[in-house]
Design brief:
about 200 residues, mainly beta, nine-stranded mixed beta sheet, 9 strands, about 10% helix
């Protein structure tokens, strides 16, 4: 029988213990060998926030030619419209979402959802809203009055207009939009926003 020197056994055991002690646990808190990745489990998708306390509605079908589109770009230039995002990084370019060009856009700096508050100098009878986003499918909602009912569209496609019709026209001067990106990352790409008022009789 071959004997291994005791000193060598002690050295090997010490080396094994030191090596195990250097292994860091996974972000999940488990040991490396017990992690889902080590077991071949698929990576989990990013956790997404949700738009809360909103009534889900179907895509709008109102004939926009029967309504009056508000010229938000002109109002912004004249100081009659203020557009306030929850992401300060997009403030210098916020005019791009009301310039009538779907090729220009603002991109949030990892702020998801992007919240846009439109403050009008005069009240309108808000009847419909349109949004044009890119980069991912989106959920988005409208709050026509501060603290009032919230109406949401789910899973709208990118690179296309989506329209939300209010159940009834709302007299308001402050309109809040929340736009939630659903896939890939948390950079919300918003190209255009349009507000439509009920035409005067």
């Amino acid at each position: 029988m071959r004997y291994v020197p005791v000193a060598r056994i002690v050295f090997l055991v010490t080396l094994a213990v030191a090596t195990i002690g250097c292994l860091e646990p996974e972000e999940t808190g488990g040991a490396r060998g017990n992690s889902p990745a080590a077991a071949g489990a698929p990576a989990q998708p990013l956790s997404r926030p949700k738009l809360e306390s909103a009534t889900v509605v179907e895509a709008g079908t109102a004939d926009l030619t029967d309504l009056r589109m508000m010229d938000l770009g002109e109002g912004l230039a004249a100081g009659n419209v203020r557009i306030e995002p929850n992401d300060p990084s997009v403030i210098p370019a916020v005019r791009l979402i009301v310039d009538g060009n779907v090729e220009s856009l603002i991109k949030s700096n990892v702020i998801n959802p992007l919240v846009i508050t439109i403050d009008l100098a005069e009240e309108i009878s808000l009847a419909a809203v349109r949004v044009y986003p890119v980069g991912s499918p989106y959920d988005w909602l409208v709050e026509a009055l501060p603290g009032g009912p919230r109406y949401m569209l789910r899973g709208v496609p990118e690179r296309a207009w989506s329209q939300l019709d209010l159940p009834e026209a709302v007299t308001t001067s402050i309109v809040r939009l929340e736009v939630l990106r659903l896939k890939r990352d948390d950079y919300v790409h918003l190209n255009e926003v349009e507000l439509y008022s009920a035409a005067s009789p």
